[in-house]
Amino acid sequence: MVFIADPLTDDRQTLTMRDAWAAHLTDLVDADPRLAVVLADISSEMFAEAMKAHPDRVINVGIREQLLIGTAGGLALAGMRPVAHSYAPFLVERAFEQVKLDFEHQGTSGVLVSVGASYDWAEGSFTHFSPRDVALFDTLPGWRVFVPGHAAEVPPLLDRAVRADDSVYLRLSLRHNENPHAVPEDSLLVLREGARATVVVVGPLLDNVLEATADLDVTVAYTNTPRPLDTAGLRELAADTGDTIVMVEPYLEGTSAWLVAEAYEDRPHRLLSIGVGREELRRYGTAAEHERLHGLDAEGLRARVRRFLA
């Protein structure tokens, strides 16, 4: 747990998280012969030059997501550090059996990088939504999950993922905060202090939470590395707010509730979980509209937190 720090930069986001990831990964592939990139058509145009320079280490398997994960797992068995990429529902849900077998069961590790998040491309409909992805990774031991809130947070997180010995899921989104924040490794960054509750917010929902709680007497702590969750820091913070906790996550509501319960098995606490609802919204619309309908905009968040505190 670390208290208020300066942002990484003062600039508004000008590139998307995917832009920042692809540019930085290209540089890393040039510098590290151990790295391999496996694609399934998605974002392949962003690696055209890298494919020419490293045809044996930048591979496009086509629209075959199970093969994508299988190839990455095989490269890991051969001693490479694979980075596999596609839309979240294709990378995680469609190919989850391969993630389970070709990484977890085989005892290998790699980096999986998704785009699309919970409903970024709302026009693409339910086939392109993946609010359940982090919950699925929670069924496998040892996976780290990184959820940046701004494009400038992506390169340092990617560096950590590539250097790690264990497996990492990097969840990119078009939703973002106005400014990036330098979050110390595996810690909560405290941006505001209060007395009535501790609000922990993950990734791109930070600005909405700060606006929603602007006049509420609550502590706000930010993380872009929700796995492992800084439960020791949470316990320390929440002790000053009556062990009253609000978890705000940009994926399925309640995903982190089990971690909070595990951290608090020795003392009572109150928890409000806020995230993407379980009800399917059978409309296209825009990502902003889905955010509002799930109550994840500032107005919706404020209403739920106020009811909880009342």
TrEMBL record:
This is Transketolase. One of its GO terms (molecular function) is magnesium ion binding. Residues 15-176 form the Transketolase-like pyrimidine-binding domain. It holds the Pfam family Transket_pyr. The lineage of its organism: Bacteria, Bacillati, Actinomycetota, Actinomycetes, Glycomycetales. InterPro entries: PDH/Transketolase, THDP-binding, Transketo_C/PFOR_II, Transketolase-like_Pyr-bd, Transketolase_C. It comes from Glycomyces luteolus.
